[in-house]
Design a protein that fits this description.
The complex is a heterodimer of chains A (about 350) and B (about 600). Chain A is an alpha+beta fold. Chain A has helices at about 30-45, 60-70, 105-115, 150-155, 215-220, 245-250, 285-300, 315-330, and strands at about 5, 15, 25, 95, 120-125, 130-135, 160, 175-180, 190-195, 195-200, 235, 255, 280, 310, 335. In chain A, the strands form 6 sheets. In chain A, strands 2-1-3 form a 3-stranded antiparallel β-sheet, covered by helices on one side. A 3-stranded antiparallel β-sheet of chain A has the order 8-9-10. Chain A has a 3-stranded antiparallel β-sheet with strand order 11-13-12, with helices on one face. The longest helix of chain A is centred in the C-terminal third of the chain and has 19 residues, at about 285-300. Chain B is of the alpha/beta class and about 600 residues long. Helix content of chain B is about 40%, strand content about 15%. In chain B, strands 12-11-15-13-14 form a 5-stranded mixed β-sheet, with helices on both faces. In chain B, strand 8 (about 245-250), helix 11 (about 255-270) and strand 9 (about 285-295) form a beta-alpha-beta unit. In chain B, helix 7 packs antiparallel against helix 8 (about 190-200), helix 7 (about 165-175) packs across helix 10 (about 230-240) and helix 10 (about 230-240) packs across helix 13 (about 340-350). Chain B is globular, with a radius of gyration of 26 Å. Classes of the chains: A alpha+beta (about 350), B alpha/beta (about 600). Bound molecules: flavin mononucleotide. Flavin mononucleotide binds near residues 185, 300, 336, 337 and 442 of chain B.
Chain lengths: ~350, ~600
Amino acid sequence: MCVVSVEKARGLQTACTTPVAEGMIVETESEAACETRQFVLEMLLTDHPNDCMTCEVNGDCKLQDLVYDYGVEWPEPNGRRHVYPIDPDPNPFVFIDLNKCILCSRCVRACEEIQNRDVWSFAFRGFETKLVAGTDQPMLDARCESCGQCVAYCPVGALYDKMSVGLGRPNQVEKVRTTCSYCGVGCNFDLNVRNGEIVRVTSAEDAPVNGMALCVKGRYGYDYVHHRDRLTRPLVRAKWLPDVEERVTEGEWTLVEVAEKRAEPTVSGNGAIAGDAFIETDWGTALDVVAGKFAKEKQAQGGDAFSVFASAKCTNEENYLFSKFTRQVLGTNSIDHCARL
Amino acid sequence: MHTTLPFPNEADPTVNDPQHKCIAVCMGTGCTSSQSAQLHQTLREELDEHNLNGEIEVRRTGCFGFCEQGPIVVVSPGETFYTEVKPRSAETIVEQHVLGNQPVERLLYHDPTSDATVEKWHEIGFYGKQQRILLDNSGIIDPENIGHYLAREGYQALHQVLSEMTPEQVIEEVTESGLRGRGGAGFPTGVKWGFARKTQKWPKYVICNADEGDPGAFMDRSVLEGDPHAVIEGMIIAGFAIGAQAGYIYCRAEYPLAIKRLRVALEQTRELGLLGDNILGSDFSFDITIKEGAGAFVCGEETALMASIQGERGQPWPRPPYPAVSGLWKQPSNVNNVKSYAFVPRIIHKGAEWFSSVGTEGSPGTAVFALTGNVNRTGLIEVPMGITLREIIYDVGGGIPGGKKFKAVQTGGPLGGCLPEEYLDIPVDFDSLQEAGSVMGSGGMVIADEATCMVEFAKFFTKFVCDESCGKCPPCRIGSTRMLEALERITEGEGTPEDLDEIYWLADGMQQGSLCALGQLAPAPVISTLRHFEDEYRAHIEEERCPAGKCQALITFEIVADLCPGCMVCARNCASNAISGEKGEPHVIDPELCERCGLCEAVCNFDAVIVK
Ligand SMILES: Cc1cc2nc3c(=O)[nH]c(=O)nc-3n(C[C@H](O)[C@H](O)[C@H](O)COP(=O)(O)O)c2cc1C
């Protein structure tokens, strides 16, 4: 598709590889170049499903755009087409539909040149040429670390995010740029939000730290956001709280039933709440409990009774504050972190 | 000029002695596949029995080119040429010819064109118009014996280069000779070397293209099997000329014998210090590695070839940059065909002038072809450039068998074109063939007689290209398949006039939109047959008729009642019980039941079955 006319050069040249030279005159939309592009597009369409209506990437598809831009008509079916099984790979993240693959090799290159995992390559020759993982294996057996880089670079709907299938197409979602909450690298990406729910994460070329690259957690680890087990408010053991029964009865706090094997019920016959039951409180109350206990221990045993474990999920600024808190407030140097993967 | 190599005793002068007693047995791939190795062994045993083994040499040689007549045996002195020699004939040859001095009549070549029996090698019509300057060692020397090559002035050129010439002089000499690459495109070899020399980047690589993927072509294989040292010597000289220290021979793994001969030859050259550090005591060092290819036609394309050497999928890279600037591992590299390298020692040794005196001005030297198809004599031939197609087909090839008429000749293999009768008198050289709408290619030459359906013919090459397209560019990957489908529709009687438009449109798109010559030239066989035989295409489409009577869907078999004696042979052989009739009465074929396999026609002894 990148062919252009270069004055004095024989035939069309590939714009992506031809070195520029002094005084070179290049025509990008010459008649010959446009005709060749049309031909290439029409060839691709003769072996491509005509299912834009139901395709996940409708509206965000390079093939669709180019076919539109170059005014290529849908060719009458006349000849062999591939019929590959849809979503044949058992991996949890990447949805594969080779019927849509145009063999552009962007996934192969993304995996090889950016991610250095060499999962993808082409097998067989001619019309039978086919994208395969490893030696035509499941992706996870072929060194795949599920970064989704291949999906991010796929210009058509051949590789897509499995968790997002059927949940919303490009024009149905709102993109919200955010910073990844997993580690301190600070990757940016777009949350694709539909009806208030994240349905997909897409990476963005203009992300300053990471560009199109993301790791498996950043790209696919967003299901915790809407997960029903997610804690959004603090839980405190009943025994640390004053007037638990009343405040629960009044509805100020809530008794939370946690699925765990208990010897005794959380609420006994006389209405008393068991000491180890979890109570959902407000942040002020919970932090007061923690602060009170820190203060007590520090007084009793000194600062070195504490050791602190910080997190790579925090930002640098948060970790800085954590360090300062550890050394100045708690009074110990025993602080470490988990970013030693 | 004759220089002395530091090991004068290694040369074995018996190869040059016409009186030397020798039984030469062809041990090329063709003849060994019809038991010539066993024949070689049996001949030695026979001689042993008569205590003659010390006196008469049984020599393993490379290809004589006349493979259809193999295994070939030549008994010297006298160069008696025996054909189709079975191991069991060893005894007769030894007892009758060696001991009794009587040529074995029944093993001599019988020429179907003149109905004569020919005794001497060089009297055989097949060799008459040939001029063997590249294949001059094939069939003469034992390719696994470096002594033979040395006696044929082998490595003299290398010695001369290292002791008397500068790299620039070598390049000049090769340029002067006018040698054009024999891999297909005919690019001037000296000029190519000059580019690689000019690039100031090291290491540089010398690469020999021995992929030879054209169906039916075996020129390069024969050179490697029959005269491996010539290729090696040419490569070392190229290394000196461009400033490289390492060479690769990229040879398809389907050529195990060529690879074995190369291995033996490389070992021998290393032992004599002709390869390795400080060759012949000079400060030039060079060594060669064999890289076996897995047998993809596209890996013969130079950039795909280098990708393959690097362990990558054999797909072409865009050029420029050309290999001379950025090739193997992005280093300056020089890729030449087997024959191009093999010519070099001869050019250096005998001089540029000698070489350019053979052939034509624009295409000096000789051309090696694998002549196949509907000709009386097939095989490997070497002819001077400028010879006409007619001379090749009728004088070397002995004309069309069975009294049939010539129809077309395909040169250049699956990327070449076909030429009809009117072009038979054009000279065979790079430029004339191109002008006529075909190409020289690397040396495939297929002859088609009048019974060949040209649509079928084009379909064969298109099918090949479909299978061999690397799959990178959509115009080639998908276009060739669509082209094949259009041809299939035509041969199956389902073609429409629009299919012809589609073919032209596909051809144009493939030509414009493919990166390498595979996709660009793949439509050539179709377009050239369409240009010269459009009537035949139209007959398939408009009249649902195959004029050559070859396309099964378009023909019917009939029995001519007057000629049929009712022998019942056809009825008995018919697998679909389509033939009926009483014994002694003319038979009839039921067109509904007939599967058009053609067996009845083949078995009929009275030519009563005809195709309509
Ligand atoms: C599809 C394709 C197949 C080719 N196959 C061969 C081959 O088998 N042997 C060869 O020498 N050149 C082959 N070539 C030509 C090479 O690309 C290259 O031009 C040649 O090796 C250069 O050598 P020369 O200058 O000695 O001719 C092929 C080219 C194409 C496009």
